[in-house]
Amino acid sequence: xxxxxxxxxxxxxxxxxxxxxxxxxxxxxxxxxxxxxxxxxxxxxxxxxxxxxxxxxxxxxxxxxxxxxxxxxxxxxxxxxxxxxxxxxxxxxxxxxxxxxxxxxxxxxxxxxxxxxxxxxxxxxxxxxxxxxxxxxxxxxxxxxxxxxxxxxxxxxxxxxxxxxxxxxxxxxxxxxxxxxxxxxxxxxxxxxxxxxxxxxxxxxxxxxxxxxxxxxxxxxxxxxxxxxxxxxxxxxxxxxxxxxx
Length: 246
Fold this sequence. Notes:
mainly alpha
């Protein structure tokens, strides 16, 4: 009887990534962090590093201590920055670099966040060019557009002082990204449903706003993002005069 062949390092690594992605989908975040930190490769590996950044970001949503939350975000940013330096053809590196660059900038204040806005969008666009079917990237571009369409006057003033041509967008542009994300992967993310409803609300389309906000509310709460989307959708529906079941 032939002895089973030993797995090659490449196969072992690919199996580890498959396991890691399943752990992320199942929200086994602490176990996922342990797995990713145990993976050893001859050289730093972009596929390990961006997954570590994603897991650290997810873990940051699960801690209440502000200092610990910040530490996790900055560690995640450092990890994906290294991943991008190793492989700038990896769409996931661009996507998570943009997400975490924006999160780090949030800690540094409104001015810092606005000053990074163009770079953040460039990386989201690059990620989308490398993988046009990634719904999360499309959602992220929608959020970027929504934030600048929805920007209050005092932030517009800051943007005007930072750039000769400050970042701008419209609710319609944001809506197109959220719709495209939903078409690409229906029901993939409760926050995309919530943002569709929120954008329709800003555009004055109460009927469509209610459709998507209700769909967000109907999603089971499995993650911190689900919980946040559920609450914001409920708040928006209440403001629209919709009575919610307690």
